[in-house]
Amino acid sequence: MALPGPLRTTITPPELELVASEQLVEIIPLVAMERTAFISGAYGPLRPPLKCKVPLWMATNLKMKKKCHIIPPVWLNTDYLQDRFNEETTKEEFSRLPFRFMEISKVLLDVASDDFQNPDKLRSLLKDIREARQAKSREGISKLDHSALDLPNLCAMEINEIRPFFVRAMGVITQLVREPEAGQAMEP
Questions:
Q1: Which domains does the chain have, with CATH numbers?
Q2: Model confidence over 95-115: pLDDT tens digits?
């Protein structure tokens, strides 16, 4: 997703994907490997056909080399996402989803779509959820209050997208609220 110039002061989507790559996912290894130490920790041993939890970066690396199958997270299925979409479109608050669901789902569907049932439907539901959540964010901007900002259940990507606007808007609103107060203090 290309961001406009003023928004490029935040973390980029690929950088958020890199951060999300530390999340653990389950795999079914196709090769045996002893426990291996990396900077981020030790993972393994890998013993086919036993499931193993590894970071997303390791799972995608093994998948691209055809050395594992990735087991989809429990939240990345059509039934669960359809329920979240229904919540997004019928309730005022944001539905509960994993904090890095956008980044993880993008990486997994790009690298391991053959490990998912109906990946096209998953992509479609994720896009629908994203659009519904963006509409809620835009609607929430009209209710912006300088004293408090409460947006529960936003994910990392959504926070990153709206952060520059909110920081500037809150600064302007705070200034506008302070100026009348300063003017009142000067009057005798």
A1: 5-21+73-186 (1.20.58.1020)
A2: 999 999 999 999 999 999 999
